[in-house]
Predict the structure.
Amino acid sequence: MDEYKVLIVEDSPTMRQLIAFSLKRLKNIKIVEASDGVDGLKKLSQDAFNLIITDINMPVMDGLKLVSLIRKDAVYKTVPIFIITTEGGQEDRERAMALGANAYITKPISGPQVLEMVKNYLNIK
Amino acid sequence: MDKKEEKDRNIFERAEEFLQVFKKGAEFTQELLKTNEQLRYRILQLEEESRTARNTQMLPDKQYAELAKQIDALKEEREEINKRIKEIENENKDFAIRYVEVEEENNNLANLYIASYQLHSTLDFKEVLQIILEIIINLIGAEEFGIFLLDEKTHELKIMASEGIDESQVPSINMGVGTIGRVAKNGEPFFLEDMSETTKIDWLNPMVAIPLKIKEHVIGVIVIYKLLQQKKNFTPLDHELFTLLAGHAATAIFSSKLYSESERKLSTIQGFIDLLTK
């Protein structure tokens, strides 16, 4: 069975744990955590990921900058990217989607909802 | 002679006639016997047909009765199965509803577990306050909020940490004054019924105020002035989760505060000891 690798880029340890906790219900899933955009890019260069989940408001490098840089990389051009953020405005959503995000999830998150979306994008039954 | 001959001839003719009549009678009898035989045969045939007809008519009746009985039994069985299917469908619906409820509860327990784990992962007072802020943003969905702690000397509630508000504008609050003061005094949480109504921030009267209690002792209040744009209201589960989190936050704040104070005292005492022993 395939192993799925998911990168979570989020400055809040609580939020990272919450997302990781929800996703760990899936079998064969490996979760790698990064605390900001730069850390995220570093982790992306070290491994190949099937899915990237990122926050927007982070120190050092925000999530939108991270998404635009990821989409410029040929390796990660088609990898699904989920944005999880407190910003619930339509403009923020459109901006993120235009940069290449696949899904826009607003906080407070629901673990089962995130899990279902990840299963759909990774085609996990 | 002639007379005798004539007489003989008459007798002979009459005998001849009689013979002819007798022959005809015999033929007639034969015909009657033949007809009789044919009629008997026909009667037998009819009797046979009648018996066969009776038999063939009786068999379907018997079969019909049996089939009707079977049909009734099958109808009953079908009704029973339909009843059972409905019961199972209802059970399935109940299970589906229960599954969603369990998923929600599971999600909330996971949230609570992670939040309490984070809250008790440090004894650094500022870090604890920062974790509480994170939890309120990420789990509760608040945009503008603050943590008020009770000053034991002045008996005033003072804002110690916040998000989305200018702390310099927030006044100190006396016990019993406004919603925050009342919550601190009576130890009961306050949730505004319709949270979508609030437009302007009233520092003393927020939409949510949760006491930070250790047993019955209130050490502060978590106050929410505004929720995130996408969070329209609090669900009953939010109330429960927030109240439980406040309990964990209170012990985390209290223990980290005690630890910081004891650390400070320890370093002061250590300073004195160093001074005396030098």
